[in-house]
Amino acid sequence: MELPAFASLAHVRILLLPVGNIRRSTFDNWASEIRSIESIPLGDIPTESKDERARFMPNPLASGHIHLSYQSHPPASVHNALALFRPSDFPLGVVGIASCSHSDSISTTLASFKSTVKDVSLHKAAFPVSTNCFVFEEGDANLDLGDRFPGLVVIPSMMANKRVHISTLLAGLCSHILGDFATVMQSLESPLGNEHLNASLFPSLPSAGELPRSLDPESAQRDSLPPLPSFNSQPDLGVNGSAKPKTSAFQKRMSSGPGLIPSRTASLPSTPTSAAAKKRPNLIGAASSHGRLFKVLADLFLLAGRHADSQIWYTEAIALFKGSPHDTAWHAAALEGLATIPVIEAWSSGNATANGIDDKQEPWQDIVDKLTQATTLYHRSTPHSEPDRSYPLLAYLYSQSVIRHTSLLFAIWSAKGWGPHAFGKMVHPGLNPYLPSSSASTKASYADLERLTTITGITRTQIAGILAQVHGPWLLHLAARERIGTLQTVAGMFGALGYLRKEAYILRELLGSIMDLIVCGREENSGARASGAGLGIRGTLVGSSSTTSGTVGVRENPRVEGNDSILRIIKHICRVHGVDIESVKLVDIGTLGTTATCNAADDAEEEDLSESPADPFGWPELQIGIIREAIAVAEALPDYPSVAQFSLSSLKTLHPVMSQSDQLHLYRTATRALTTAIRRGDRRTVEYWAGKPIVSIEMLPLPLIRLPIEKPLSLLARADEQTGVNTILTGAKDPFLYNPRKVASGQTQSVLVQNERFEVVMTLRNPFVFDLELESVALSTSGARIESEATSIIIPANTYHPVTMTGKAVEPGMLTIRGCVVQAPGGLPREYVLPLSTEEEEETRSWRRSAIESEAGRSKYAGLESRPWKRMSKRDSKQASKKVTVQFLECKVVPEQPLLRIRRTSLTHAAVMLYNGETSAIRLTLENVSSLPIDLIRLTFDDSTIAPAQQALADGELSVFETYETEYDLIHRPVFVWDGGRDTSRVDPGEKTTVSVKCVGKVGCTRGAIHVSYAYIHRHNETLGKPPDVFHTRLLSYPVIVTVYHMLECHAMDISPYSRITAFASIAEDDDSAAGQAQRALFDVENVADWCLFSVDVRNTYGSPFEVTFERREPGVSFLDCMSTTVLVPPGSTTRIVLPIKKILLSEERISQPIPTLSDRQFVVVKSNLSLAEERAQRELFWYREELFKAVRGRWRETGGMRSGELSLRQQRMTQPMLEALRTETARVQMSLIRYEDGKAIPIAVDPSGSKYLPPPNEFVCLRTRVINLSPGEMVLVANLSLEPAQHTIYQGVLSDIPVGRLAPGDSYETELPVAFLSRGRFDILAEIRSLNVSESSNPVGRGDLRAVVDEDFS
Amino acid sequence: MSHHLFLLSPSDTPLYSLTHFSSKPAQTTTTSPLASNLPSWSTSAFAGTLTALSGATSATQAYHAQGGTVRMGGGQDRHVIQMIANASLDVIEEIVRKDNLMYLKSVDKFNEWTVSAFVTPGNMKFVLLHEARNDDGIKSFFHEVWELYVKTMLNPFHTAHTPIRSPVFDARVRASAKKHL
After folding, report:
1. Sorted alphabetically, which keywords does the UniProt record give (chain A) (predicted)?
2. What pLDDT shows up at residue A743?
């Protein structure tokens, strides 16, 4: 509905009608051509000669205009009552537009035009209507009609300037209309007519026939509508008895001027007073005042463009209306008319200062005053009669008046002042007067709006204040069309003023009105149909599903035009209230084939939105109310995708402030709507809406037996030569305390295997209070291709929910897991990426979060400026966010790998029970269960003793000696040893192989593990590219529980010089058994001085007896045929084992070596602060001990059983005396006692054990001391002898520093000393040999001793 | 005669609202005869339909209820009151930008309501919907509310966007309303 312009009171309204068969485009084309003629100069109006019709004709030289406005719709019939009150609201002329190509059809065109006009005016057209029909020629048709069809004009297509022609035709029409005015006026000027005029508030024109003495003019008129032609033809106007005004007018015309300007003088008195004076007596017979009559007259003059006349009569009328309580509305209308005149005149003159005004007031102040008064009057006016009909009309007039008032100010304001532009806006506003005119799309900024205010001096508040008056309960009086029109105008003005909230308020009402009509209309339709069908389910509100008779459902195609506009209004309202109802986009399925991808920045933004502390905008109660309304409207239209969009968007944006039931309701609504939309084949659907669901993503590591371990190929080449000692000792520990490379590679990639399944755990989040259903969740990956199935899941309300996704990589390479692709039911899939939370990323995020945090709670921008999306755009956290490269979870997919499994083992329950030192064999049978062969098998072992030892080594607190012991233990006595060797056995698919492992019982070992590494290395190279320099092994572990019983322990190892006594004591003389003989053989040594005795205590702490055997190995003889001693050690007892062993002498170079470390550790810091001598002593101890353990070996055997093992002596320590005993002396001293008889030396008797000499007392015997140099170098020696007890001996010569002289290696020197033993008893003779050429000659290089017992009597 | 007070944060979120029914007799405002004798809105089909469709009770009746025949007392739709308060922010914002007054007397009129407002330096807006003129009373009422509000804001955990739920604040505002309105 076009709302009237400010100057609508001065507009002659013309109805444009399509006639006959005319295409819409053609009609629109010609209609716009006609519409462009907005005003016709008065001078162009042809004046008719007929006197009575010439009353409103313009002066020939008049300079005014008749303003035209065009309509395509006839006015609402309810407004017919206003016909006299406001003639400008009614079409005074009808122009039919037809298009013709044949002359034959002209007559039919005319006929149809006439019938159309009749139809249109069928309801009581209160005013005479002039008609004309324009027939536009089409193509090259040449219609030459002549004057055959009156009221029909053909406009040839040949005509060049149609506009001029049309303008002329319109001028003719106007002339006709003006003639009609006179006719109407004539009928009203009669006393009867005047009575009629005053009969009711909104009187109707008395019909010519009914005019006299009709008792009930209203009903009569309504019932008997006079046909149009009667008005046009005006047959009996003169007969009505209203001759007097006519004659008077005629007289006046005659009197005031002869012929030259008859029409002008006809109605214009020279002065108002004289006119009034002349009029009044004429109408004295009438009971009512003439105010209304004058007002109608003024209206008509205004329409006719004769403003001066109009102004005079308005003034007259107002004078009469004052004080008349029934005429408030008329009064107001007169004021409105009066207010219009200056504007029209200003427009005509095109000059702002056309009407003289004083400087104090604004030029429009006078008009404003009048209009204010008019508004007040309308507001006050009360219908006294027939209120039912009058209320709507009064309300209509009131709202029109307010809008007229507002539009005046608005036009001046928006046109930047009182000037031609403003006049143009007021007189010919165009189609959309209240939309921002300057720039079509962009919204005017605050500064722009304020600028207008500053220029014009009219504040927006002022305009809004006036405009707000229109709003009130009376709007309900209005008919639907007027209400919609009014609301539309009001909303438009508020919008143009920048009052968006008020606009939204009005728009909601507007929407209500429109939806009311839509729903009502639909119900009428479906109601009718349903009643016709009888059986059918009554058409529901959706309006498109109802049944016709029978059972077949018929679906109507809903008309969707206009829906978009309604939805746009809704969206606008919601945006004003801070709800982005389009935050979930609607997408056409057809236009978009692939899944929507998004970059990480979007996600981050979204995250910000969700994470940012609630800094809410808007009025939650209102927002929710508005959303509900929006959804209801969309449902009523119906537009299901929009319903879904609205519900989901509001869920997304508003869920923090929504109640549970609201959330549930919206979710259900959306689900339902989507289902319906899909069922109906709607092409649109919503994108994914439920926020970023994915919180974390992680790769589940492969099970250990499937995990491939990358190794460089070069390792294979090295493996053959290397013993693998290092790894065991150091535990493959890095030699550096801080290794930067290791840190860098800390985030190790997961390794996956081609064609094997892997699992990814995603944590999804549901922030809503309902269970969120996801139709599909799939992995989003790049890089190597994978096969992965999407699953559908339901995330419980308000929780984090872990989901395990499985996949299978089908080709080797790098696999990047970007995130997931989610899809809600009925929606579109969307990808959410989840970057790896690297340090940089975390930093950026925390920085952003803190920026948001610091911005939250501050309100730099208030009001609508602080709506969420505006806030986001202004935030500096957003502006400064820089693009960073994101990293994703990456995995390496390696080529297909073989798989082994343990088929069986020789162990039961994977447990081994051993005695300490016992060895047992374990056999593992492995089966290749893959389709690839295995060509490399390696075994590594682990046991519970390794780790503590490694730890002790790593700590470095051990002494050098202990370190060596520990290392020796680790390397030479491992718990497990691979028996099979290093043969690379090939295992073909499905085949089995066996590996055997030796297991040694070692005290302290509780468990161990056998690791089988295997690989398929020698692959067929499929591509010509460089073969990879790495290969992958897999590890099969077999844990073993080891139980070791500690049963025999050695302690108190000792080495003493070989003495006959000890040896003698060890041999059981009476034992003649084989063992005894063996024993004797063992102790039977040739040269006593070359031997020493090794002894050790063996204790049996176990519950069963064991046989312990110690063997000695002589150099160059194998253990097999070496001497041994075997002892049975009963439970709980300790047995000492004695074994003679040969003395050892190690070369100086050997001894001077430091104690070796078996590992290659780099930083072995000597921590000991021993002196050189001590260090040397320690080395000697070490090396001799090592030599000893090479020579002596202990074994045990279970008595009466098969089990046997080794007995380790490694626990035993060696001391300095033991070393002295073991080491071969540098200089050997052999001492003997001899007696010379007759110059012949006779040895002194020796006791049976051979350890004691039995010399005679008091007799000189010779002590022969023989010194042999056994060292590799020559030495200068001296000997010291001592005799104890010295006081009972007599000797000849010296005892100390007996020179021996220089002895070459192997040379010997003998010296003799005569000695006499003077008493009974035991004598010990000691000899010490010292070297002279060795600087530190503190220690003797050799010792000798001799024991003599004198037990004979001194007789 | 009722008054409706809303404390609005700079982002238009209500932090506190109060409906006060004054014991003072309602001044007979000049009602337009146009506002009488309205057609009953229940004949309007959409009102019922929309209400039923949306599943809401009050939200959709906004534009019908404002024309309701019951003008005084509890008959006013809360939603409409809120809409009016919200809409009046347009005018308040404009005036605040031009004048540096805190008390904006009768800044807007809509339907039967007059809107007075008080804007704190922190851009908090106190909006009061009232029907009769009572400038002095309203002014002193606003000042008291402001004082109470400032006391609330002294709480360091209270930001400009925190809803005020303090019962003390509520009681004092009510007392003040009783005194001045």
Report:
1. Golgi apparatus
2. 54
Least confident of A15-24, A55-64, A1256-1265, B113-122: A55-64
CB of A130 within 8 A of CB of A48?
no
Contact A472 B111 (CB under 8 A): yes
Residue A1056, φ and ψ in degrees, nearest 5: -130, 160
pLDDT at A242 over 60: no
How many angstroms separate the CA of residue A408 from the nearest CA in chain B?
A: 20
CB-CB neighbors (< 8 A) of B13 in chain A: 616-620
As for how many domains chain A has, the answer is 5
Highest mean pLDDT: which range of A143-152, A251-260, A646-655:
A646-655
A1181 and A1251 in a single domain? The answer is no
Return the residue of A nearest to B7 by Cα.
A619
**Inter-chain residue contact B12 with A618, CB threshold 8 Å:** yes
Whether the bond between A868 and the residue before it is cis, its omega within 30 degrees of 0, is no
Q: Are residues A1193 and A1169 located together in one domain of the fold?
A: yes
Q: Are A1315 and A1262 in contact (CB under 8 A)?
A: yes
Per-residue pLDDT at A1207 exceeds 80: yes
Q: Give the tokens for residue B73.
A: 């007392």
If asked whether residues A1235 and A1207 sit together in one domain, one would say no
A459, A466, A476, A650: which to substitute to probe chain B, counting the most B Cβ within 10 Å? A476
Candidates B10, B93, B94; nearest CB to A859: B10
Identify the CATH class of B2-26+91-180: alpha beta
Taking only Cα atoms into account, the Rg of chain A, rounded to an integer number of angstroms, comes to 63
The ipTM estimated for the assembled molecules is 0.85
Closest CA to A682 of A589, A595, A594: A589
C-alpha closest to that of A329 among A221, A192, A203: A203
How is chain B split into domains, by residue range? 2-26+91-180
Residues A54-73 have pLDDT tens digits of 677 777 666 778 888 887 77
Element at A1344 (helix H, strand E): strand A1342-1350
Q: Is the pLDDT of residue A1015 over 50?
A: yes
Residue B147, pLDDT > 90, answer yes
CA dihedral B57, B58, B63, B68 (to 10 degrees): 100
Contact between chains at A616 and B11 (C-beta distance less than 8 A): yes
Put simply, the answer to whether A501 touches B90 (Cβ < 8 Å) is: yes
Chain B: residue nearest A467 by CA? B110
Domain coverage including residue A375: 358-534
- Asked if the structure places residue A1011 within a domain, the reply is yes
For residue A152, is it within any domain?
yes
Most confident of A204-218, B28-42, B148-162: B148-162
DSSP strand E in A59-143: where?
65-71, 91-100, 130-137
Q: Are residues A1251 and A1154 in the same domain?
A: no
**Residues 6 or more apart in contact with residue A439 via CB below 8 angstroms:** none
CB contact under 8 Å between A473 and B53, yes or no, is no
Identify the CATH number of the domain in which residue A1298 sits: 2.60.40.10
Asked if A477's CB is within 8 angstroms of B108's CB, the reply is no
Same domain, A958 and A1093: no
Considering only CB atoms, B123 lies closest to which of A468, A523, A862, namely: A862
Residue by residue, DSSP assigns A1055-1106 as: EEE--HHHHHHHS-TT--SHHHHHHHHHH--S-GGGEEEEEEEEEE-SSS-E
Closest in B13, B32, B84 to A474, CB measured: B32
The model's pLDDT over A619-628, given as tens digits with 9 standing for 90+, comes to 888 888 888 8
Span A810-844, pLDDT tens digits: 888 888 888 888 888 877 888 888 877 777 778 87
Question: Would you place residue B64 in the very low, low, confident or very high pLDDT band (cuts 50, 70, 90)?
Answer: very low
What chain A residue is nearest to B48 in terms of C-alpha separation? A516
Closest chain B residue by Cα to residue A626 = B59
Judgement on whether residues A1243 and A1179 belong to the same structural domain of the protein: no
Residue A812 within any structural domain of the chain? no
Same domain, A17 and A148: yes
B70, closest residue in chain A (CA to CA): A473
Q: What number of C-beta contacts closer than 8 Å exist between A and B?
A: 187
